[in-house]
Amino acid sequence: MKQTPSNKDLTLDNESLSSSDAARRALDFYLNPTPPADSAHACWLVPREGLSEAQATEHATQLLRCAAATAHESANGLQGMHRDLALTVVHMINMARTVLEHLPSTQQRY
After folding, report:
1. Cα separation, 95 vs 68, whole angstroms
2. Cβ(68)–Cβ(88) below 8 Å
3. What pLDDT, on a 0 to 100 scale, did the predictor assign at position 21?
4. pLDDT for 16-27, tens place per residue?
5. CB distance 75 to 83 below 8 Å
6. What is the pLDDT of residue 39?
7. Distance (Å, whole) CA 62 – CA 54
8. Is the pTM of this model over 0.90?
């Protein structure tokens, strides 16, 4: 015996369709000729809104200071070429931090 679907199963309204991810993807597939932006190139870290250049520079400087300390501590447990490589990373981080600390917008802090 074949069962027929009830009216409840067939009821589709605009609200349920608009909130359906599957419906949105189907409509995008057929109606949106341009592919979505490549998410691999999308920025995953966005600074908070209203962050000034000086605040961003200060935050980046602090992050680099922490990265240098972490790399330096890692180098302490290493020997030979691995230690040299870790200390090279410390040196590059410190060079980047020095550049940030001497930007014109940060001159007033020092």
Report:
1. 10
2. no
3. 79
4. 666 777 777 777
5. yes
6. 61
7. 12
8. no
